[in-house]
Amino acid sequence: MRALRSLSLALDPDWIDFAVRHVDPTFSLTRTFARVVEIRRETADTTTLVLRPNRRFRGFVPGQHVPVRVLIGGVVHERCYSPTSEPHERTLAITVKRQPSGTVSRWVSDTAALGDVVEIGPAAGEFVLPPASTTPLLLIAGGSGITAVWSLARAALRRRADADVALLYYARRRADFAFARGIEELSARHEGFRVRFLPQSPEDGEVAAGRFSEAHLAESAPDWAERDTFLCGPAGLTKAVKRHWQSAGLVHRLRCEAFALATSAADASEDASRDTRGPTSVSFRRSVRTALSSAPTLLAVAESAGLRPPTGCRMGICRTCTCVKVSGTVRDRVTGEIDSAAGSRIRICVSEPLGPVTLDL
Ligand SMILES: Cc1cc2nc3c(=O)[nH]c(=O)nc-3n(C[C@H](O)[C@H](O)[C@H](O)COP(=O)(O)OP(=O)(O)OC[C@H]3O[C@@H](n4cnc5c(N)ncnc54)[C@H](O)[C@@H]3O)c2cc1C
Known about the structure:
This protein is an alpha/beta fold. It is built from nine helices and 19 strands.
């Protein structure tokens, strides 16, 4: 009996992980761990970590993102990052812009060291090139949004060396353009890859490009309406570009990726007024658990009930936490939409219950 127990313990993947990770901290039979093998400063506030994942990593498609889990002060924090390495490389690079009060981005910038180990999840996301398309591309990046856009540019030129790709790249100052040299080199090698760096603030007597405007399109991609357009940047840039495409009735040709949500005082006061509602019950069908909705989102309620559903950005962008709502009415805190349909798929990180809800979790 004792021998049987020892054997089953020895065959338990978690126990094997626990034992072997003392020797190799990236070893796991069930999880993807990666070691920091190189650190590069791209700009004053942007850092690339080159990671060597264990054999469990299944790769990514350029433009997708991966969830990265980091242990900081004894607490695991998870954030999404768009890989900046090539998909065929054995290492995986993420490039992170330091946010002044950010938890994970400051760790990457200030603390991460060679040999550190992080956990990564499977790549996800729809911000990818359409398969086998020859339509000219317009790529628009602002700030850290260049990570996903730079991946798309290289993927398009790898697919077809003569691809027609126009890039508009916005940043505060000249020194803030990450990957500037790589972008220029690629543009010099590929005639069809035309790049415009657009600094917001004037320096050394040069005229600032200012914010996104029709003039930028007219100069760099006058045929913008015929191009498949991919946009990744801060909320202000996204809003301005979307408005332009909407007024031309072409918003269906614009693909957007956001790294952060725009928040407003109006959202905050709306949240405060919602918080006066009483708690309601939330049931988790597969886990056979029920909790009171004492937290604002269904994700937070699930976690307070001891569940650990998969999560990514935790702000309604990456869709990692999407799950089936078996029954009940919820409000999407980002779009304001109310959903009462049975069996709909909802992002639990931004959904709040408006009455009893059952989730397939
Ligand atoms: C799909 C996806 C892909 C992403 N890819 C990248 C990437 O390649 N490179 C990268 O640097 N970031 C990327 N991000 C953003 C990243 O996931 C983190 O949100 C960011 O690094 C900040 O995390 P933090 O823990 O430092 O900040 P937090 O502790 O979460 O937040 C601290 C403060 O910073 C603000 N903040 C958070 N994120 C941003 C942001 N992106 N811009 C402006 N303010 C912000 C918050 O509002 C808050 O006030 C991506 C996000 C998503 C959803």
